[in-house]
Amino acid sequence: QQLLMRVGSCHPQAFIYPLMVSSKSNNDSPRTLAVGEILKSISDHSPGLVEQANMISEELNRVSILWCEDWCSTIEEASKVFFNERNISLSLFILDSMHAKTNVEAKTPFEVSFHQSYENVLNQALQFRNSYSSTNDIRDLIEAWSIYYQIFKQLNKQNSRINLIDLQYVSPRLLMCRDLILAIPGTYQPQNKLISIQNVHSVMEVIGSKQKPRKLVIRGSDGHNYEFLLKAHEDLRQDERVMQLFGLLNNILANNQETFKRNLQIKQYSVTPLSTDSGLIGWVPDCDTLSSL
């Protein structure tokens, strides 16, 4: 912890994004408490950096999967657990977690619209689900699933039409951010001039693959555009470790005379986890998804 504080006093941008991921833990483990102290130390000598990193992380997570998409995948997952695995308690836990996630104050125009369209019908399903917990009457659960199925059909149809995401509706805070001191993900190099976030492009393209990731474009303080793939429902921490391994291998190849002459190296791209199930991957041009192929 003391070592990280010392490094953070000189190079806070080097690990501000990983610290944001660790800070999202809801437990009171020594690790979580240590992360809180490190972030406080960074806030003391780099005012605004932690707040900006938290805002960017929170809003990108919001944009990575909309409530309508999240509910659709949740109902699908819960139905497989319920009907295929016959695991009632787990399927209800999955649904309850999603109810808790969306049963909050709407913070964007899109979330307001979702509440207006689906809050009442979702509450109807929840009432039958809660009635089952009280009475253990399977008919209540069947009624709840009938409502969830109707919601799924509507949302699935709606989601199939989403090919562009306008930040004006889904994340006004992200749209309004300007001239931040926070580095663009994956660009920080201690020996180079800091490239900070100037702004985020107002529209994101939705890639037509199974998980529907987004193409994110960030304008840097150097005047260049930086493109990323914003993915949800995927833990990118393993991908990040693989890229770190490739970096070590490239150092070995560069220090070997034979491999250096042959210009042997592994192509890398940046991987920046934003949470345990979302993150950014540096855009690789001229690629197709397996789905499109």
UniProtKB/TrEMBL annotation:
Keywords per UniProt: Kinase, Transferase
GO molecular function, one term: protein serine/threonine kinase activity
InterPro entries per record: DDR_Repair_Kinase, FRB_dom, FRB_sf, Kinase-like_dom_sf, PI3/4_kinase_cat_dom, PI3/4_kinase_CS
Pfam families registered for this protein in UniProt: FRB_dom, PI3_PI4_kinase
Domain PI3K/PI4K catalytic: 200-293
TM spans (from-to): none
GO annotations of cellular component type: cytoplasm; nucleus; TORC1 complex; TORC2 complex
SMART domains to which the protein is assigned, alphabetical: Rapamycin_bind
Record PROSITE patterns: PI3_4_KINASE_1, PI3_4_KINASE_3
Any one Gene Ontology BP term: TORC1 signaling
Protein's name according to its UniProt entry: Serine/threonine-protein kinase mTOR (Trinotate prediction)
Origin species: Henneguya salminicola
